[in-house]
Each structure stands twice: as structure tokens, then as C-alpha cells.
Specification:
single chain; mainly beta; Porin; 1 helix; 11 strands; 7% helix
Length: 230
């Protein structure tokens, strides 16, 4: 099982680097995230995430989003999560674009040799945009997003990791040519440091590559995270 995870990670990494992009629009940005998680009992937990993103070489506000989620522990290392996201994205013509997203996550984490671990997450994502202010706001886009993370626990408080994610478009009602196509990869490397028993701070660097979409974006992101467990 461990070898299968690592093999899949390597395949995704190689596939991303062979990803045909054509003309792209590179940009640097910053993502800042604050998260709270509360365990209800041994099986259930709830979570809240707030994130703000900047673009145009850190000079412009891009968006805010809020996540509300509930997770259920199926078995050791395996959990299911249901998450709602409300996104408010700056639009210089209309003011703000409002997006609503539902995410269904299945996550499996397993410790491997010494202090290493692997984690795999499969996400089904449904989203619409400007449902009350746009004629096509009723249309729902759907995606499958597969993410693999390999981490190393350096000591009791410090963890380093690398990750790879690919996004597969299932259905785009506005553009049928995008249906059933691979459109985006994300690579990231970062660390998390445990400040107290209930709080963690982290930083990461992420590279996003897009293809076969209108104005593909190559993003180079520096991110900061702060997490509290209640």
C-alpha cells in the first residue's frame, strides 16, 4: 500500500511536468488562512476556515472565502468530510462575484517507515457563481480533485511535507469542450510548527499550472496558515 501511494505521487509529478500548457499568464500571490476545528466526539468534528488571497505580485486583493465543514471518522486513518464554501471574489466591473461550493472529501492517512506518512484525498466539488445576478448562475460546474501528500515529522513540534494535486473537470455547462478534461496541477512544499497543544502555524510555497482553460494562470504562491484545535 505504501509503495502504491509513493508510485502514484511520482506519476502525478512526472505528468505535471509533461503537462502541455501553451500560452499562460504567470502571477505571484499570497494566501493567508485561519482555521478552527472542534471535536464533537470520537467520530465527529466541525471546522471553520477563513482565507484571504492576493494576486498581481501581492499588490491586489483577489478574494475572501469561508469554509464550514463537518467530518466523520470512518476508521483509523480514514475520514469523510462535507464542506460548504462561500467565496467573494473581486470583480472590477461588477464589484464582487459570489460563488457557492459544496465539497465531498474522502481522506486516508497512513504512517510509513520511521517518521514518514502519506495522505491521499479525493474531492468531488460542485460550484455555481452569481446565482442571483447572472443568467447562467444556475449552472453547476463539477470537478474531481486528487491530492497526495508525503510528510516527515522532524520532531514532536515540526513537520515538513510535499504535495501534488490534480484537478479534473467533470462537467462545465458553460463550455462543453472542457468536459472530462485535466485542467490544473498544484505542487506544494511547506512545514507546520506546533506552537501549543492546541495551535499550529505553517508556511508553504505552491506552484499552480493550468491548461485547456480560458487564460490559463501559472501561479506562484506563498502561503501562511494558523490553526486552532478546540
Amino acid at each position: 500500500m505504501n509503495k502504491h501511494f509513493i508510485f502514484l505521487f511520482v506519476i502525478l509529478f512526472l505528468f505535471e511536468n509533461a503537462f502541455s500548457k501553451g500560452v499562460s499568464y504567470p502571477d505571484a500571490g499570497m494566501w493567508n488562512t485561519f482555521s478552527i476545528e472542534k471535536k464533537i466526539n470520537k467520530k465527529f468534528s466541525i471546522s471553520l476556515d477563513e482565507e484571504v488571497r492576493f494576486k498581481e505580485n501581492y499588490s491586489q486583493l483577489n478574494l475572501f472565502y469561508t469554509n464550514l465543514g463537518v467530518s466523520y471518522k470512518i476508521s483509523k486513518g480514514l475520514k469523510f468530510s462535507l464542506i460548504y464554501r462561500n467565496t467573494q471574489k473581486v470583480n472590477f466591473e461588477r464589484g464582487w462575484d459570489i460563488k457557492h461550493r459544496i465539497m465531498f472529501d474522502l481522506t486516508y492517512k497512513k504512517k510509513i517507515k520511521d517518521n514518514f506518512y502519506v495522505q491521499m484525498r479525493e474531492r468531488i466539488q460542485l460550484e455555481n457563481k452569481n446565482i442571483f445576478s447572472s443568467e447562467d448562475g444556475k449552472y453547476i460546474e463539477s470537478f474531481s480533485r486528487t491530492k497526495i501528500e508525503i510528510g516527515y515529522n522532524i520532531n514532536r513540534n515540526l513537520k515538513a511535507y510535499i504535495s501534488e494535486e490534480m484537478r479534473f473537470q467533470i462537467v462545465d455547462p458553460r463550455n462543453a469542450e472542457s468536459n472530462f478534461g485535466l485542467h490544473r496541477f498544484r505542487q506544494a512544499a511547506g512545514f507546520n510548527y506546533k506552537l501549543t497543544l492546541s495551535s499550529t502555524i505553517g508556511a508553504y510555497y505552491l506552484v499552480q499550472l493550468e491548461s485547456r482553460v480560458y487564460k490559463p494562470n501559472d501561479l506562484y504562491i506563498f502561503g501562511i496558515e494558523y490553526n486552532i484545535d478546540l
